[in-house]
Design a protein that fits this description.
Polyamine Oxidase, Chain A, domain 2; single chain; FAD/NAD(P)-binding domain; alpha+beta; five-stranded parallel sheet; WH-like_DNA-bd_sf; Arc Repressor Mutant, subunit A; elongated; 746 residues; Homeodomain-like_sf
């Protein structure tokens, strides 16, 4: 094997990624303000202007995961265009990219369909509706925790009832999305807190305080990451994990850069050779572990032959086991890296103040019952039933978001039993372990310039013990240091006394810094994790074990009988073992539940309620007290704004229905306050002139009640809520306090 030309060409010290062209999440506001904001100021745009805007929007959509000139499989299944591959598809992609770019430009606001109509020709109305609805109901726009979303969330659920088991990232994401779709939701959480395997521990006291991550910690890839969107909505700063990661040997000596670079280069070359070997072996590679192949190739190519190089090589093996939460002897040589093409691009980041800030924002206002471990889940044609101790909860559907480790332990009984196909996938997939020792010190003795540093171990069997340290002093509020334990060492960690573990980690730190004359003090507080023995997780995160494949993630994501649904990091083939993967799976299942609910209602021939929770009764109630009534025209607007550009509705009544209420025709359309004022200025006694102005001068199209509910459901919901004068906090309280029938509490 060839050696690297210089140490600058060596890859970063984390799991290798496939490069993708992306935009920086933090730079999107400025980018789109410049590209899209000018449209309102610039009435006439040249062909070159339009082409540049279209290209910019396509690149932004690409960063979110949309292909440049193709449809997603989900879009094809949704039937967003009538014919694939033609002009309509190309036009749809342009409209879709425009909508994505508009919302990504300001993720704090709820993007309305009417706002898209301002910048896209009415000739493409059907594509606007197709693209907007797909993006909205599949969680690509208008998701998250922005306080400005409150008026668009229905006060009362009309779509049906859903029980969500688990208040981790997947469960919280799904619950919030389902509420916005108009479902009644109840979350059952076994712990006394939300977050699941994302757990920020507050260490220290009044004088010395720090927030340290004991579970999921790093936002892995900021570009297009939904957690980056949440951070933007909450105005939470992100700290890039700096690339500098010095390695020290067991004597505390800094590892030579050339030796370090050579071993890392050889290690990555061996991973490339693994790819070649499995392609030659074809199906036989499914039965072999990554560890077995790597060791065979290491010996064959003479990599890390002496003892010092072997320690360095072992460090990289430990880092690989950390990335996969599994021993290399268990990882599939064929599929261990099957998700690499989908990894998020961009920097790896810490969240200032801790991940609990995202978790708390997601959990705020949700109806969550803590301390409710689920014993049994029953599902059938009549709905679902959840048994927790002596209590029974019933609903239309259920979303199970418990970790794969809990499913493997059969901690929850399913009636009827899960399909054999799903149970087999649960058994095949791996669920590994990563443990930590979190320490709060009196001072930052390791130096302010470091976010990470590593330490080599003497023996291969202990290669994962305290091999990597994360420094949280830049984001936690105090001098906090976390030591990672991966692979076989993480398993032994579970059975070792905390005092022994602390003695070992301090010995290692003093071995590094003592020779430099730096005194390593005793920590103020120490916490050791035990994720493997935690009955609500039984491990850390998933990996593809020998005999498994990425298909098993898809099988875990499959719903059962249109009643039982599954979410969590172990249900996403593209983003397993990540916090953003868990969050995205929650959005995915919320969309799936909405689709199934609509399907069931249509088969039962029940009237379909819109996601916004509005129906014909809400519409009629609004026009009982119109803001403006002129002859046959009545107008209603949002009382919380007097912006002349803000939208409202107008109703036109035909025939004399005051004498015969059963003989009436009422049509509606959406218009601005400015347009309404123009109509109001006309001769009050002439209904014809007003109607002519409405349709001919202003070019507005009248529609029936069902059509206006479809196209303007969100707007109607906002106006109705505003006219009732209810704030978001009141909505949440109401949802928590009202009985959730058909959710029953026994």
């Amino acid at each position: 094997m060839n050696s690297p030309a210089s140490d600058e060409t060596a890859p970063r010290r984390n799991r290798r990624k496939v490069s993708r062209k992306n935009y920086d999440e933090n730079a999107m506001d400025e980018l789109i303000e410049k590209q899209l904001g000018g449209k309102a100021k610039k009435k006439y745009r040249t062909k070159q202007d339009l082409e540049k805007e279209t290209e910019t929007e396509a690149l932004i959509a690409l960063s979110v995961g949309f292909p440049i000139d193709e449809l997603l499989e989900e879009e094809i299944r949704a039937g967003v265009v009538r014919e694939l591959g033609g002009k309509e598809q190309n036009d749809y992609i342009v409209v879709r990219n425009h909508i994505v770019a508009r919302w990504r430009g300001n993720v704090g606001i709820w993007l309305l369909k009417d706002q898209i109509r301002e910048t896209v020709s009415s000739d493409f109305e059907h594509l606007i509706s197709a693209a907007y609805d797909f993006l909205l109901f599949n969680g690509y726009i208008n998701f998250g925790v922005s306080p400005l979303f409150a008026p668009y969330i229905p006060e009362e659920g009309t779509e049906g009832s859903v029980i969500v088991v688990g208040a981790g990232l997947a469960g919280l994401a799904a619950a919030r999305q389902l509420l916005s779709f108009g479902f009644k939701v109840l979350v059952l959480e076994g712990r006394s807190r939300p977050g699941g395997r994302v757990y920020t521990q507050k260490m220290g006291g009044k004088d010395r305080f720090a927030a340290v991550e004991l579970g999921g910690s790093v936002i892995t890839g900021l570009h297009a990451n939904p957690l980056g969107v949440l951070a933007r909505q909450l105005s939470i700063p992100l700290h890039k994990v700096r690339d500098n990661c010095p390695l020290y040997n067991s004597e505390g000596v800094l590892v030579d850069k050339v030796a370090d670079s050579n071993v890392e280069f050889g290690f990555n070359k061996l991973l490339d050779k693994v790819t070649e070997v499995r392609e030659m072996m074809e199906g036989a590679a499914k039965k072999i572990s990554l560890g077995e192949v790597l060791e065979t190739l290491r010996v064959l190519y003479g990599v890390a032959k002496d003892s010092e190089e072997r320690k360095l090589f072992d460090w990289h093996l430990a880092n690989l086991e950390y990335a996969n939460a599994g021993c290399l002897s268990n990882l599939s040589a064929a599929y261990w890296d099957q998700d690499d093409p989908y990894e998020m691009g961009g920097d790896h980041c810490f969240l200032a103040g801790g991940n609990w800030r995202l978790i708390n924002a997601l959990a705020e206002g949700l109806p969550i019952i803590y301390g409710k471990s689920v014993d049994t889940i029953k599902y059938g044609d009549g709905g679902v039933e959840v048994i927790s101790g002596s209590q029974i909860f019933q609903a239309d559907m259920i979303l199970c978001t418990v970790p794969l480790g809990v499913l493997k332990k059969r901690s929850i009984k399913f009636e009827p039993e899960l399909p054999r196909r799903k149970q087999a996938a649960i058994d095949r997939l791996g669920f590994g372990l990563l443990n930590k020792v979190a320490m709060l010190f009196p001072s930052v003795f390791w130096g302010d310039e470091l976010d990470t540093f590593g330490c080599l171990n003497e023996s291969s069997i202990n290669r994962g013990e305290f091999f990597l340290f994360y420094a949280y002093h830049t984001v936690s509020g105090g001098p906090a240091l976390v030591a990672l334990v991966a692979g076989e060492a993480a398993q032994r960690f579970e059975c070792t006394e905390p005092s022994v573990l602390l003695h070992r980690v301090l010995k290692k730190l003093r071995g590094i810094y003592g020779p430099k004359g730096v005194v390593v003090p005793d920590p103020i507080q120490t916490v050791c994790t035990r994720w493997g023995s935690d009955p609500l997780s039984y491990g850390s995160y998933s990996h593809v074990r020998v005999g498994s494949s990425g298909v098993d993630y898809d099988i875990l994501a499959e719903s059962v009988s249109n009643r039982l649904f599954f979410a969590g990091e172990a249900t996403t083939r593209q983003h397993p073992a990540t916090m953003h993967g868990a969050y995205l799976s929650g959005l995915r299942e919320a969309s799936k539940i909405l689709h199934v609910a609509n399907y069931l209602r249509s088969n039962l021939k029940k009237p379909v309620q819109r996601y916004s929770g509005v129906n014909i009764n809400v519409l009629e109630d609004m026009f009982k007290r119109p803001d403006i009534a002129i002859g046959k025209l009545s107008f209603v607007f949002n009382p919380l704004t007097d912006n002349p550009k803000s939208f409202g509705l107008v109703r036109v009544c035909f025939d004399n229905f005051e004498e015969d209420p059963t003989n009436r025709l009422q049509l509606y359309t959406i218009l601005s306050r400015e347009q309404a004022n123009k109509i109001k200025e006309l001769d009050e006694n002439s209904n014809e002139s007003k109607l002519s102005c409405l349709m001919n001068t202003l070019g507005l199209k009248l529609m029936g009640a069902n059509s206006v509910l479809d196209t303007g459901g969100a707007l109607i919901s906002v106006i109705a809520n505003a006219r009732r004068g209810r704030s978001r906090s009141h909505v949440v309280a109401g949802q928590c306090n009202l009985p959730l029938n058909p959710l029953h509490f026994n």
